[in-house]
DNA sequence: ATAGGGTTAG
């Protein structure tokens, strides 16, 4: 075959020669294509190459076999161009390629991955019409589609139907997909039952099955069960954990602050010659960032790079979020710029972190500018983005703008979630719009949104702070009537409301009720009650409360302490209390110059 | 000579 240099040498010598040369090249190219479609398909890395190859294949006479087309479709599906893959499938049909069950399974998978499981089922109908017997691959793809669309009941129905009507022999993938669906809905009891059922059949659970369940148990905070299953997998079934198993374990342990065990797992992993991948490093980066240890996170990233792993969008997003949580917006922007320079396009998560950072710093203009930049890049804000912006706007008292944004959220088809609801209620209460918050609350009525103790805490606090302790009392009774369990915060905001109105008797009664209700007071409870007592110059229980605080190992905060000092300075409280107070003051507060003559 | 399932971020 003529090579490229030879071709160049001929240029300009003779146009006829050039023409024949190029056609010669073309035909040899085609010839090599014909014999080597499979090897060309394996080299496909982008959609364009795939489409070109398809075009050339479809012009061949005779047409390449269906196997070649299936290979190409697989390649396109692997690079996640599902709708292009479907287009090619349609073209295959109109070209008259005799599509097989392989082709159908790929096409159905594409529909399902596009959240168009309905079309997937339509293609199942086509199978019957074309006398293609649907196999387990096809049913697995459909089952996965239903799970993906959260249609868990239909997934269960399909699963049972497959078995009952013997539509196909379910295999380990069928079971694992069903298990994934059950896990997604937090139904760990049924999940484990299905795992046991599986063990009775001849398709045994494999590493995929176990990884799915172990990860789900961690997500549901069932750490001990997760480890039990992990041991069962390794010891009883002899299945070796892989990098994904370890990633789940390490991620779960980090989330619960169980650092020692997490690093033990890292060591164990290395001992077994399983090297950490980008995902593992990302878990560690994120864990450090969440702990406020951004420098450590940067160290992890350096190790990651030393080991030849390339940080990706997730890595940078975690780091940016870490800096934003610390309010270090300059660093956050630096990382943002450097990731853009590396050709990584920021996504909605990146922007939401930045918005959050600006809002935390009460820089609402900065947040707005980011919001506009984000939408300008064609990124659609999601519920989290809107929640962040709403919180920021309420925080700086821009209730009208918040309202406008809430309406926009609605217009964009974003359904407010429990966080949105809490943010709006809290925002209204903190901006002296308790009446509005209450009307919204009553409008929502007896729904799941209102069966949330946090919602009651917000409203009780809002009512109390706005001089509506009677409303607070009604709300408190209401939540008890509903069968909700008040938590420490509920008691704290209620006690704080009573204290503010000088109803110290009520405050004390509720305080005493906490212990017997199995919800012991925390340091905040004591601070609130003490401040209430001091402000009303009601000193009877003060010493006893301080003593209790000491017994429980609680400490005083700066503002309560300051109040005590004022009362002592005014001669309202005896100086003998200083000794007890000094025991309750954290070291950093002892530096206060006003306290130098304490001991 | 071709098809499928598991882990991460706001």
TrEMBL record:
Which Pfam family name is an example for this entry?
PPR_1
What InterPro entries is this protein classified in? PPR_rpt, TPR-like_helical_dom_sf
What superkingdom heads the lineage? Eukaryota
What stretches of residues are PPR repeats?
171-205, 206-241, 242-276, 277-311, 312-346, 347-381, 382-416, 452-486, 487-521, 522-556
Q: Which UniProt keywords apply?
A: Repeat
Do you know which Gene3D superfamilies this protein is assigned to?
A: Tetratricopeptide repeat domain
Protein name per Swiss-Prot or TrEMBL: Putative pentatricopeptide repeat (PPR) superfamily protein
Write down the species: Helianthus annuus
């Amino acid at each position: 075959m003529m090579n490229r240099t030879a071709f160049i040498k001929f240029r300009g010598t003779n146009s006829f020669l050039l023409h024949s040369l190029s056609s010669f090249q073309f035909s040899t190219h085609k010839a090599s294509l014909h014999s080597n479609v499979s090897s060309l398909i394996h080299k496909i890395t982008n959609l364009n190459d795939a489409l070109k190859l398809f075009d050339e294949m479809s012009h061949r006479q005779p047409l390449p076999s269906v196997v070649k087309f299936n290979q190409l479709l697989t390649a396109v599906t692997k690079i996640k161009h599902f709708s292009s893959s479907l287009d090619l499938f349609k073209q295959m049909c109109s070209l008259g390629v005799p599509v097989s069950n392989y082709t159908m399974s790929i096409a159905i998978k594409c529909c399902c991955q596009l959240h168009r499981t309905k079309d997937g089922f339509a293609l199942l109908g086509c199978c019957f019409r074309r006398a293609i017997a649907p196999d387990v691959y096809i049913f697995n793809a459909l089952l996965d589609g239903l799970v993906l669309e959260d249609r868990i009941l239909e997934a269960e129905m399909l699963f049972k139907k497959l078995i009952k009507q013997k539509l196909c022999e379910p295999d380990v993938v069928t079971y694992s997909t069903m298990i994934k669906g059950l896990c997604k809905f937090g139904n760990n009891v049924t999940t484990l039952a299905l795992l046991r059922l599986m063990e009775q059949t001849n398709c045994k659970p494999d590493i995929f099955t176990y990884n799915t369940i172990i990860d789900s148990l961690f997500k549901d905070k069932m750490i001990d069960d997760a480890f039990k299953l992990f041991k069962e997998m390794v010891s009883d079934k002899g299945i070796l954990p892989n990098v994904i198993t370890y990633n789940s374990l390490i991620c779960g342990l980090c989330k619960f602050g169980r650092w020692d065990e997490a690093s033990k797992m890292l060591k164990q992993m290395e001992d077994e010659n399983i090297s950490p991948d980008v995902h593992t490093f990302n878990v560690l980066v994120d864990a450090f960032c969440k702990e406020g240890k951004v420098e450590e996170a940067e160290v992890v990233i350096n190790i990651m790079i030393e080991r030849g792993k390339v940080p990706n969008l997730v890595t940078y997003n975690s780091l940016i979020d870490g800096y934003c949580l610390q309010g270090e917006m300059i660093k956050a922007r630096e990382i943002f710029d450097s990731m853009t320079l590396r050709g990584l396009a920021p996504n909605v998560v990146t922007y939401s972190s930045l918005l959050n950072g600006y809002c935390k710093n009460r820089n609402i203009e900065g947040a707005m500018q980011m919001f506009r930049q984000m939408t300008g890049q064609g990124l659609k804000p999601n519920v989290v983005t809107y929640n962040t912006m709403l919180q920021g706007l309420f925080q700086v008292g821009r209730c009208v703008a918040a309202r406008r944004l809430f309406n926009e959220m609605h217009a964009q088809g974003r359904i407010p979630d429990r966080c949105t609801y809490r943010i709006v209620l809290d925002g209204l209460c903190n901006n002296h719009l308790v009446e509005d918050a209450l009307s919204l609350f009553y409008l929502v009525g007896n729904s799941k949104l209102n069966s949330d103790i946090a919602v009651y805490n917000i409203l009780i606090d809002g009512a109390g702070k706005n001089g509506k302790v009677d409303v607070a009392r009604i709300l408190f009774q209401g939540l008890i009537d509903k069968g909700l369990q008040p938590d420490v915060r509920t008691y704290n905001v209620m006690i704080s409301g009573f204290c503010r109105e000088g109803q110290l008797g009520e405050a004390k009664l509720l305080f005493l009720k906490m212990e017997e209700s199995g919800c012991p007071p925390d340091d905040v409870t004591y601070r609130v009650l003490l401040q209430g007592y001091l402000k009303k110059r009601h000193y009877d229980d003060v010493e006893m409360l301080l003593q209790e605080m000491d017994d429980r190992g609680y400490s005083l905060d700066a503002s309560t302490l300051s109040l005590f000092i004022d009362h002592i300075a005014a001669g309202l409280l005896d100086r003998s209390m200083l000794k007890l107070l000094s025991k309750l003051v954290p070291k950093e507060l002892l530096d206060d110059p006003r306290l130098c003559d304490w001991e």
